[in-house]
Design a protein that fits this description.
The protein is globular. It has a five-stranded antiparallel sheet, sandwiched between helices. Strands 6-9 form a two-stranded antiparallel sheet. It contains eleven helices and nine strands. With 364 residues, the chain is α+β, with helices and mostly antiparallel strands. The chain starts with 24 loop residues before the first helix and ends with a helix. Helix 3 (140-158) packs across helix 9 (288-299). The longest helix is centred in the C-terminal third of the chain and has 28 residues, at 305-332. The protein has two domains: 25-121, Phosphorylase Kinase, domain 1 (2-Layer Sandwich), CATH 3.30.200; 140-363, Aminoglycoside 3'-phosphotransferase, Chain: A, domain 2 (Alpha-Beta Complex).
């Protein structure tokens, strides 16, 4: 690592609250003080720009620092943006997977600020977004250690004792792979707009090759570098894992496929680089095929990477396309005004092309 042993001032910070996404600060403050009576004064409220789904705010008091999560305005997909579920999953995981934030409370009374929400303690640290924070320059060896540490936390999650968490009923049992492929196919069809491809070829290929589940474990379902928090005094150490909205019990290889959908490496083309949202292009980061080999070696799951891995990678890309399209659908129908979503239809077209390229390689 370079001379960044003291990284105070580069930990992740919130920014100005977007127009139309303001909180009822008076109502939230009164509710939160009912859970934490020792709080003093009024909170300084900022909003995080990361993420394209739930709205996330920082509530900074003179003697307390918290994160509030709430769903976006507008029509929501069935089963999505369930604050109660996300809250309870983290509360159950915390004792056996300590990098989960500490929960403060869940508010199901929409009168407080227009929707249900929950509040958790803020973990102060560094979130590696599209680029590492300015002033944080890691050499290749340190970057590789960061990379493997992040992957190790995913492995650790997949090895959590489900019974010890009390989350036995979180999933639906065997048949996870089949349910996911069928479910995401149905969601895409429902959210399709005129300016995106049909994905019929990709969906048919996935359905034909649907694998049996290799295991039924706790999976995160949105594993990315910008969902982890790194220690300020050691930017290779993972001290927090965020965004548990889609966590469930399911197939760990599907979870890894989802993670690789965001994994843009240094020699990818310009179109792929334009979609990059995490620093996986840096010297020292593992390549996608190295990530798969590392994970399989750590977990012991048996898989022929050359022959069988394509299914999981295509699934991850297709699922990402559906998520992007669901978000774009909201923008297209004026259910959100966030300008960041304006060109998501282009990403959906690109992901179709990338899926078909992987399928062609697999057939070759």
């Amino acid at each position: 690592m370079s001379d960044n042993t003291n990284n105070k001032g580069i930990e992740d910070q919130g920014g100005r609250v977007r127009a139309g996404e303001e909180l009822n600060v008076v109502g939230v403050d009164a509710w939160l003080k009912g859970h934490v009576p020792s709080l003093q004064g009024q909170p300084e409220v900022t909003q995080f720009s990361g993420g394209a789904s739930n709205w996330t705010y920082r509530l900074k008091y003179p003697n307390g620092d918290f994160i509030l999560r709430r769903p976006p305005a507008g029509t929501k997909a069935k089963g999505a943006h369930d604050m109660g579920r996300e809250y309870r999953v983290q509360q159950a995981l915390k004792p056996v997977y300590p990098v989960v934030p500490t929960m403060i409370g869940l508010c199901e009374d929409e009168a407080v600020t227009g929707s249900e929400f929950y509040v958790m303690e803020r973990i102060a640290g560094i979130i590696p977004r599209k680029n590492m924070p300015r002033g944080l320059n890691l050499d290749a060896a340190t970057t590789r250690r960061l990379c493997t540490n992040v992957l190790d936390k995913l492995v650790e999650l997949h090895q959590v004792d489900v019974k010890a968490t009390g989350l036995d009923s979180l999933g639906k049992g065997s048949g996870y792979c089949q349910r996911q492929i069928e479910g995401w196919s149905a969601r895409y069809t429902k959210a399709k707009t005129w300016n995106v491809p049909s994905y019929k070829y990709v969906m048919a290929w996935l359905k034909e090759r649907t694998p049996q589940d290799v295991a039924n474990v706790v999976i995160h379902n949105d594993w990315r570098f910008d969902n982890v928090i790194l220690a300020e005094n050691d930017p290779t150490k993972v001290i927090g894992v965020l965004d548990w909205e889609m966590a469930t019990l399911g197939d760990p290889l599907m979870d890894l496929g989802n993670a690789l959908a965001y994994w843009i490496q240094a020699d990818d083309n310009k179109l792929m680089m334009a979609t990059r949202r995490q620093p996986t292009h840096l010297p020292g980061m593992l390549r996608r095929e190295e990530v798969v080999d590392y994970y399989l070696d750590k977990t012991g799951y048996q898989l022929d990477r050359q022959r069988d891995w394509a299914l999981y990678e295509v699934y991850g890309l297709f699922r990402l396309a559906v998520i992007a399209q669901q978000i774009y659908y909201r923008y297209h129908h004026k259910q959100t005004r966030n300008p960041a979503f304006k060109n998501f239809w282009i990403i959906v077209n690109y992901l179709d092309w990338r899926c078909k390229g992987l399928i062609k390689q697999a057939k070759g």
